[in-house]
Amino acid sequence: MKKIILALLFFTTIFAQTSAIALFEESRQALSNGNLDIAREKILAAIDADKGNDQLRKEFDRLNGLNNKANNANRAIEDGRFDDAISGFNSVLESIPKYVPGFYGLAKAYEGKKDFDAAIKNYKSALSLDSNHANSKKSIQNIAKKLYNAANKDYKSGNLEAAMKKYKQVLGINGRIYQAHFQLGVLYKKMGNISQAIQSYQSALNIKKTYDKGWYALGIAHKENGDIDNAKKAFEETVRLNQKYYKAHKSLGEIFIDLQQYDNAVKSFKTAISYKSNYAAAYHALGITYGKGKLEDYRRSVEALEKAVELNRREVLSWYSLAESYNELGECDKAKEAALEAVDLKKNFGGGWFQLGIAEYCNATGNKNSAINHFERARNDRQWRKMAEYEIDRVKNPEKFE
Predict the structure, then answer these.
(1) Which fold has domain 1-130?
(2) Helices 2-32 & 54-79, crossing angle to 10 degrees?
């Protein structure tokens, strides 16, 4: 009987040792896979199976130390001690290279330091080990949002280089954020790089084809780049997507002026006004279309331009165009009033002085000396010099023009 008991004890000991060794190997495998919690559970089970094994206890102490380092690093983040957290997580990762919480914690610490590039790198490291790590995915999205908002703030404060860097960082995180592409286009255009602006606007529209604001901006860029056909297509797409986009109707009208399709231009300007009744720029453009060198319906031109200056009394070109149309109608006093408003707003604008001279001369029925003086003022503006000199000659030598 005694022999049987001794044999049982022997085999029990052997079984326990074998079980402990297996659990120890499972612990090491779990650690190799980056799972510290399971590694600790397995080593505890191994110790229970072989309580006298000092090697197992030393391994548990080592794992417990790593766990404590990770916990201390997490507390350091909560306390705002980001450098301590970084040091702690790096130490843990040296022993557990696939430890997802270590990369996640490291990323949080870098995010706390506003080192977003390093934060993203470590969030992506966590995701490379666990593609379903929801916290890392969410954190990356939050960083993109923070950077986008910070970029907008930089843009509004005039720090364009900083804004551009942040928008590019946003797109480095997620290239499908169409708003960042659009804002890059705005920046490129403001910096005078129209071709790059067009590319950025197009990138935004490739992601969101129904982005009416993007189509409108693309149309403006094409127009500034001298590409009237593509500008027209972009504005037409804008109003197709949003019939009430009054700025696009007005811009489309300006394209029709360039194409000498004046009736279509009138229709577009009137549509813009129907959606925004106090749209001074559209009334101005409508007055221009009815004016000299286009439809030459001066009475309608005056009606539109009177409304334009009523809505915006500081628009020099509206006063100038109004003076021109009144001069064409032979209503010299009203032309003079409009021209005086123009030169009061801009003393060195030759066009205002030119129309004032025309109104003063009033088809040879007015004050010739005053007219000449006004044309001399117009002559100081290089753009108006030749026309002013022609009128001076016409006033001084009318017989040459009979």
Answers:
(1) 1.25.40
(2) 30
The answer on pLDDT for 17 being more than 60 is no
Please give the backbone phi and psi of residue 298, each rounded to the nearest 5 degrees, phi first. Answer: -65, -30
Measured in Å, how far apart are the chain's first and last C-alpha atoms?
Answer: 148
User: C-alpha angle with apex 234: 230 to 239, nearest 5 degrees?
Assistant: 150
Q: Please, are residues 140 and 123 in contact by the beta-carbon 8 Å criterion?
A: yes
**Tens digits of residue pLDDT in 277-301:** 999 999 999 999 999 999 999 999 9
Q: Which residues contact 206 (CB under 8 A, 6 or more apart)?
A: none
The Cα 160–Cα 219 span in angstroms is 22
Mind listing the pLDDT tens digit for each residue in 157-188?
999 999 999 999 999 999 999 999 999 999 99
Q: Which CATH superfamily is domain 132-242 in?
A: Tetratricopeptide repeat domain (1.25.40.10)
Q: What is the CA radius of gyration of the chain?
A: 39
Give the helix/strand (H/E) hosting 38: helix 36-49
Measure the CA–CA gap between 331 and 325, rounded to whole angstroms: 9
Under a CB-based contact definition with an 8 Å cutoff, are residues 323 and 335 in contact?
A: yes
pLDDT of residue 18: 57
**Residue 10 pLDDT class (50, 70, 90 cuts):** very low
Residues 6+ apart with CB under 8 A from 279: 246, 250, 272, 273, 311
What residues does CATH 1.25.40.10 cover in the chain? 1-130, 132-242
Counted residue by residue, the chain has a size of 402
pTM above 0.85, yes or no: no
| Exposure string over 38-61, b if 16+ CB within 10 A, otherwise e | ebbbbbbbbbebbeebeebeebbe
